[in-house]
Design goal:
Layout (H helix, E strand, L loop, with lengths): L1 E5 L4 H13 L4 E6 L19 E5 L5 H11 L3 E4 L6 H6 L2 H22 L16 E7 L23 H20 L3 E6 L1 E3 L8 H11 L3 E4 L5 E6 H14 L5 E4 L4 E3 H11 L7 E4 L14 H7 L7 H14 L1 H8 L3 H8 L1 H6 L2
Parallel strand pairs: 1-2, 1-4, 2-3, 4-5, 5-6, 6-10, 7-9, 8-12
Antiparallel strand pairs: 9-11
Helix pairs in contact: 1-7, 2-4, 4-5, 6-8
The chain binds nicotinamide-adenine-dinucleotide (NAD) and thymidine-5'-diphosphate.
C-alpha cells in the first residue's frame, strides 16, 4: 500500500507517520506537507533514513504537484490531515482556512478520483481500483456545541460556530459529495481534542505546560468552565488506522476518549504536576463564539470496528508532561521564532496587565 499522508509534519500527522511506519513496515509512507508555521520537520527526525518513508514539501492546493505525486508514487490511500487547525487564528484570519481546508481538500479529492476511477472519462462510472480509500481527518467541532447534557453522534446535523469548524464542516460535506456523486470510496473521522508529544504551543495543554515551566501567566478564556473531551494522540492514530483498514465505505466515525474535562481542571492538574502556584492563573477575555461543551459518543467505532482508547487521561497527561520536560529544546526552537509575535498579539491582556 502507498499511503499519502498530508500534513504529516504537524502534531497529529507526525505522530501518525511514525505510528504507520512502526505498525505497517511493508507500506510506503509518503508525507506531503507545506511546512506552514505549524509544520516542523523536527517532529520527524527520529525516523532516520527509513527507505519506506518519503517527505515531499508541497501544498495541497498545488494541483500540478499533487498530480505528479499521485503518478510517481502510485498512491492508493490518502489520509488528509493537512489543515489550518487553530480556532483563534481562524478568528483573526479566516481566509486561509477556506483555501487550505476546503479548496485543498477538494483538489486532493479530485486528483484521487481521476487516478482511482476505472474509467475517468465516464462521469457515470462509479467503479474504482480495488482497495483505494480517501480518509478525511475531521473534528467533533463540526457539530457545534452541546449544552450540559448529551453527546455528539455521527447522524447529528453539522452546526459549526467559528471559521475553523465551518471550514472543516465544509470539507466534510465536499468529501461526502464525492462519495454520493462519484461513488468515491471515502471515510470521515471526527475526533475530539488531542493532546500528546509534538503539539504546537498555541493549543491549551502545551501552552500551559510551557508557561508553567517559564513561570509565566496562564491565560484562561472566560470562566474556564468550557468542557472538551480529551484523547491521547496515539489513540487517535490507532483509531485512524482502524478506520483506514476496516471502515465501511462512505461511513463517518466519531473518535473520543470518554474524558470530559473543564479547561480550568486541566490547568490546575498541570500546575500541580509541575509543582507551580495557582497564582499564575490569569482570566482573560473570552474567545468570541466560544463553544461551551464538546463530548463524543464513540459507540459506533467501538462496536462496529472494535477500536477503543488505551490511555486514561491520567496516563496520557503524565506521558505528555514528561515528554515536554524531556524535550525543552523542541519547545525553545518554536517559541524563539515567529511564534512570539503571535503570542504577543493574541495575549495582549496578559502582557499589559502584567498579572
Ligand atoms: P497542526 O496544525 O499541528 O498541523 C497541520 C499540518 O498541516 C502542518 O504540518 C502544516 O504544515 C500542514 N499544512 C497546513 N496547510 C497546508 C497546505 N496548504 N498544504 C500542505 N500542508 C499544509 O494540526 P493537528 O493538530 O496535527 O491537526 C491535524 C488534523 O487533525 C487537522 O485536519 C485538524 O483539523 C484535525 N483535528 C485536530 C484535532 C486536535 O485536537 N489537534 C482534533 C480533531 C481533528
Ligand atoms: P484549544 O487547545 O485551542 O482547542 P479547541 O479550541 O480546538 O478546543 O483550546 C482548548 C480549550 O482551551 C478551549 O475551550 C479554549 C481554551 N483556551 C484557553 O482557555 N486559553 C488558551 O490560552 C487557549 C489556547 C485555549
Amino acid at each position: 500500500m502507498n499511503v499519502l499522508i498530508t500534513g504529516g509534519a504537524g502534531f497529529i500527522g507526525s505522530n501518525f507517520v511514525k505510528y504507520m511506519l512502526k505498525e505497517h513496515t511493508e507500506y510506503n509512507i509518503i508525507n506531503l506537507d507545506a511546512l506552514t508555521y505549524a509544520g516542523n520537520l523536527e517532529n520527524l527526525k527520529n525516523i532516520g533514513d527509513n527507505e519506506k518513508y518519503t517527505f515531499i514539501k508541497a501544498d495541497i492546493r498545488d494541483k500540478k504537484k499533487i498530480e505528479e505525486v499521485f503518478k510517481e508514487y502510485d498512491i492508493n490511500a490518502v489520509v488528509n490531515f493537512a489543515a489550518e487547525s487553530h480556532v483563534d487564528r481562524s478568528i483573526e484570519e479566516p481566509e486561509v482556512f477556506l483555501t487550505t481546508n476546503v479548496i485543498g481538500t477538494q483538489i486532493l479529492l479530485d486528483i484521487a478520483k481521476k487516478n482511482w476511477k476505472l474509467n475517468p472519462q465516464d462521469k457515470h462510472c462509479r467503479k474504482y481500483k480495488a482497495g483505494v480509500n480517501f480518509l478525511q481527518v475531521s473534528t467533533d467541532e463540526v457539530y457545534g456545541e452541546l449544552g450540559k447534557e448529551g453527546l455528539f453522534v455521527e447522524t447529528m446535523p453539522l452546526l459549526p460556530n467559528n471559521p475553523y469548524s465551518a471550514s472543516k464542516a465544509s470539507a466534510d460535506l465536499m468529501v461526502r459529495a464525492y462519495h454520493e456523486t462519484f461513488g468515491m470510496p471515502i471515510n470521515i473521522t471526527r475526533c475530539s481534542n488531542n493532546y500528546g508529544p509534538y503539539q504546537f504551543p498555541e493549543k491549551l495543554i502545551p501552552l500551559i505546560i510551557n508557561n508553567c515551566l517559564k513561570g509565566n501567566d496562564l491565560p484562561i478564556y472566560g470562566d474556564g468552565m468550557q468542557i472538551r473531551d480529551w484523547l491521547y494522540v496515539t489513540d487517535h492514530c490507532s483509531a485512524i488506522d482502524t478506520v483506514l483498514h476496516r471502515g465501511i465505505n462512505g461511513e463517518v466515525y466519531n473518535i473520543g476518549g470518554n474524558n470530559e474535562k473543564a479547561n480550568i481542571e486541566i490547568v490546575k492538574l498541570i500546575i500541580e504536576a509541575l509543582g507551580k502556584s495557582e497564582d499564575l492563573i490569569t482570566y482573560v477575555k473570552d474567545r468570541p463564539g466560544h463553544d461551551r461543551r464538546y463530548a463524543i459518543d464513540n459507540t459506533k467505532i467501538i462496536t462496529e470496528l472494535g477500536w477503543k482508547p488505551s490511555y486514561t487521561f491520567e496516563e496520557g497527561i503524565k506521558e505528555t508532561i514528561k515528554w515536554y520536560l524531556d524535550n525543552t529544546q523542541w519547545m525553545e526552537n518554536i517559541v524563539s521564532g515567529n511564534y512570539m509575535g503571535y503570542y504577543k498579539k493574541m495575549y495582549k491582556d496578559v502582557d499589559e496587565d502584567g498579572r
